[in-house]
Amino acid sequence: MTPEKEMGFLDHLEELRWRIIKSLLGIVVGAALVFTFMDQVFQILLDPVLSLDEPPKLQVLKIHGMFLLKWGIALVGGLVLALPIVTYQIWKFVAPGMLKNERKYSFPVILFSFVAFVGGIMFAYFIIIPISLNFFASIGYVDVENNFSINYYFSYILWVLVAAGLLFELPVLVLILSVIGLVTPAFMRHYRRHSIVTILVLSAFFTPPDPVSLFMMSLPLIVLYELSIGISKIFDKPV
Predict the structure, then answer these.
(1) What percentage of the chain's residues is helix, strand, coil (to nearest 5)?
(2) Are 128 and 164 a contacting pair, CB within 8 Å?
(3) Which of 87, 139, 177, 235 is spaced 20 to 30 A from 60 at the CA atom?
(4) pTM
(5) Is the four-CA dihedral 69, 75, 76, 80 of positive or negative sign?
(6) What is the Cα–Cα distance from 80 to 152, expressed in whole angstroms?
(7) Which of 29, 33, 41, 57 is nearest to 161 (CA)?
(8) How do residues 162-205 score in pLDDT, each as one tens digit?
């Protein structure tokens, strides 16, 4: 069996360029698919606020507001749908630098990353967003109407959904680092307290500035960290 030919710097750049192009094409195709079913997606994203006991009025405050809003939703949706493609392209780019036994984890990593991201989105949609909307809608004043900018509402919804999806990738990151030997269960247990502080900081950064969203995001991440210790134990490389 002949050894793999070592690639030069320009060859790596060329490969990286094509990996990026393929990833962008996947996002564009996903965005086009989401835009095709925009009315259904739009209704799904509206459901949390319409399900409130006293739903606020949503208003378009700019002439081009709805146009930009729908394209923004399509872009975010395209990124979510193309996540397996993007993950695959990243893995294929770094795979040549890995050992043969490490490359066999490509499919589990790609599948696990997509499932974790979707799991984060579902948790945010069904738990974080309804609780936070109910909390904020309940803090009102009798003479003040709750009228929300629809652009701000969707920015809030999409930001929370994507942030939750990214933060739920923690077990995937631990799996990859465990496979290549950079993380061990003992290491994670030793730095548990530091990690909890880091989780709180990340949750505060990725969620709206309120204690409800912070708590609702931090709690499952702490649970995921404990789960990640078990994942690290399974994939831990023997020294």
Answers:
(1) 75, 5, 20
(2) yes
(3) 139
(4) 0.80
(5) positive
(6) 21
(7) 41
(8) 988 988 888 888 877 777 677 888 888 888 888 888 888 877 77
Angle at 43 between CA 82 and CA 116, to 5 degrees: 35
* Residue 139: closest CA among 207, 56, 218, 214: 56
Task: Return the amino acid letter for 177.
Answer: L
Q: In whole angstroms, what is the distance from residue 170 CA to residue 78 CA? A: 22
Residues 6+ positions from 130 with CB-CB distance below 8 Å: 48, 51
DSSP structural state of residue 181: T
What does the alpha-carbon distance between residue 95 and residue 222 come to, in Å, rounded to a whole number? Answer: 30
Amino acid at 51: S
Which are the contacts of 39, defined by CB distance < 8 A and separation ≥ 6?
none
Residue found by looking up tokens 């564009």 in the block: 28
Distance CA 66, CA 139 (A): 28
Residue 172 · residue 232 · CB < 8 Å: no
Please name which of 153, 169, 19 lies closest in space to residue 80, comparing C-alpha atoms. Answer: 169
